[in-house]
């Protein structure tokens, strides 16, 4: 457990936004699931971080929540990107790209 | 912004939010259970708290927490809270009261459009006497030169068309006292002459009708008048029908065309003129014949009209001044007729005009600064007191702090909470202080004798003042709370936690020593500041006593005085003189009247009329000592004035009734005889009075004793008394003096009736007594003496409480030690002395500091003093005695308590 790599700080928003961009509307459980599967079980999102992060993004207006019946016939809150959220995703992708590139350059330099 | 809305919606739908989050988590848990998610589920409560925290304002939540805690702490400690709030209320209230006057007098802008753009035009001349060959208005000294806002009317025209730095330039002038008759009521009021550009230039709109236009402001235009809003309300009950009616100004009919905007009082915050008249109507109103007045109006060397302008956007005051000074310089140069005039040529200068004409500011700014400093010092003492109490409390709360810190509370967080407590205290003090301020404003207004017709001080609790109070209260709370808060949170956890009970006496850490040190420093500062305030009070009280003890040279008791101006009601020449004489005769026959006379103004009441003088045998260019042309102060009076004032005749005779018919005679004062006749008898000698090099055709018939002429502060100048009929052209308003058997003011109504019977068009103005008039001239000194005595008492009280508290605390802490001393045989007297010695050491250090400061700063108040020096040894010695007495009084109770300590109890306690 202690050896599992943690999600780098600051990237959780990016992961959630990207997931929603890909899936359209999805509930919290589905988001966490998707991140885990897509990362091939490397990135595990804990509920203790996921739900506060979703609330944060609601406050910021990047995502909107809507109650719908879920696949197991329960009510679930489905989250969706707002136009504001799309812009934020672009911003974060851009920033992340620059940081990744920079880190790559640093660690690959001879 | 929408984020704010979302957060607010959250606050309203909190319950729904909780339900939804619950449901969401249930859903998550259910799916998790189905699929055997490999991660363990975390702490659900924490998850919820974290989610909720996203929506709330943590800062304000904590603030609310601190507030609740602070209120509980205040309620738990009632005595402390009451003392702190009360002393803060006094300190903040006094500051608010003085500040409201500062705001009204020094800071407030005129209620006009964009007051920040306004500039006032003035000139400065290097000479003391100033360059103008005639001036009607204001002139004051500035260093070696003189400054005035008055200009000749033709000078305005040379500036007017060319100015590019100003977007507008308009003129106005004081109409001084005018006789205004409206709706059958006559009164003497201050009026204003305004040019056509005045109202548009200021951006003042009419409340009714129209304002003065350019076509009203030209020679020969029908005379119109604009009322002030307050006068319209007072005299016409705000009736629009007033427009079109006529009123009489100095017996000349004017048609009312409109009312100015509510709240507009002209350009002088110290006045509230009821009427505004066109500038070009001024020759109709002034006492001299209209033709002569017109000549003065257009005279290139007669300075009377004032100017104000608006800077164009982007133009600085300096740029505008450079440009206008050049234009005015050419004008001034063109008036030169003799080369020696060139030395004192006036130079134009611009001053900021946002707060209007600066007469009030010049009069009150320095006194207000002195008072503001004093109340600031009082608040400092109060702060020191509360800081001291908080320090003592912090010691009592050491254990609590240690527990909180050891449980993981951040130091900043605890400091913030302690500061919230102290700011809460100071805000409560500030709120109560507003009541103190209301009382204070009323008290000071009363002290300043804010009478109608005198300077009006518009002080009150308005928004800027309330803002000041709030800011002051918050700052105060932080100032007195910060040191104790820092101190309280700097705890060595281990020893503090080991203490059995809070504030136990037997643990003495180094920090404890420091705390005690800081508290003593505060007490010393309090004593030093109190000494300053007590010395100031001593100096001002002494000054007032000196002024009251001034020998007047006349008897001021039981004298009724009042003013009349029959000329403004249409009387002229012989009819005017007769009107005055007949009235005086009617007063003299009243049974309660001992004597009645009249003069152009009352004595010792800040009036001065200086006239040119020739004395045969003396050079016209003046006495060699002064180098000035000869001149003398004078008083035009009737035959009874000197008798009524009880100014005794020393040589020859006084003025007599027949002198009023053949008025080329004069009575002079001792000082006059001394200065101009080298102390020899001047009886029978001839002098000339008035204008330049007057012909010596006036015979001196008597010498009277010296008396105060214009002020208690000035030495007696030479004075010449002449019959009021001597210069009929100059005869205008007169002041009656009536000596009564009993209370002079009881006669006021009778006087009004008699004058009303003589002429309904002549209003009686400024009915008062000679004593009250003189008192008014020392109103500032009175205010200072009264206020400073209050301040000094307040400071002594607060500092006394501070000293008492500190010593009582010290004794309580040293109970064990004192017990041991007594058990070992120390006498009670010795114990008392031990405590008092400490008090005296603190007091002496404070007094020494205070003395040094007083020595350094006393010259700031030198100009307010009379008859004493700022380092007056008597005042300072008494002040020191008072403070030592106060210190011993404050320290004696703790010392006495120390001496009553029972060694057995103290030791068992240990």
Give start-end ranges of low-pLDDT stretches of chain A.
none
Give the tally of β-strands of chain A: 2
In terms of DSSP E residues, the strand content of chain A is 5-15%
User: What is the CATH level 1 assignment of chain A?
Assistant: Mainly Alpha
Strand order of the largest sheet of chain B: 6-7-12-9-11-10
**Assembly type:** heterodimer
Largest sheet of chain A: 2 strands, antiparallel
Q: What level of helicity do the residues of chain A show?
A: 55-70%
Number of domains of chain A: 1
Category by helix and strand content of chain B = alpha+beta
Mean pLDDT of chain A: 86
Give me the count of strands of chain B.
26
- C-alpha Rg of chain B (nearest Å): 37 Å
What does this structure look like?
The complex is a heterodimer of chains A (110) and B (910). Chain A is an alpha+beta fold and 110 residues long. Chain A has a single domain, classed as Winged helix-like DNA-binding domain superfamily/Winged helix DNA-binding domain (Arc Repressor Mutant, subunit A, Orthogonal Bundle). Chain A contains 4 helices and 2 strands. The longest helix of chain A has 26 residues, at 83-108. Chain A is globular and about 55 Å long. The N and C termini of chain A lie far apart (34 Å). With 910 residues, chain B is an alpha+beta fold. Chain B folds into 5 domains: 2-56, no CATH class; 61-108 and 366-504, no CATH class; 115-354, no CATH class; 530-550 and 776-910, no CATH class; 566-761, no CATH class. In chain B, strands 6-7-12-9-11-10 form a 6-stranded mixed barrel. In chain B, strands 18-19-24-21-23-22 form a 6-stranded mixed beta barrel. Chain B has a 4-stranded antiparallel sheet with strand order 17-25-16-26. The radius of gyration of chain B is 37 Å and the shape is globular. The model of chain B is unreliable at 500-515 (pLDDT under 50).
Keywords:
heterodimer; A: 110 residues; alpha+beta; Arc Repressor Mutant, subunit A; two-stranded antiparallel sheet; B: 910 residues; six-stranded mixed beta barrel; 26 strands; globular
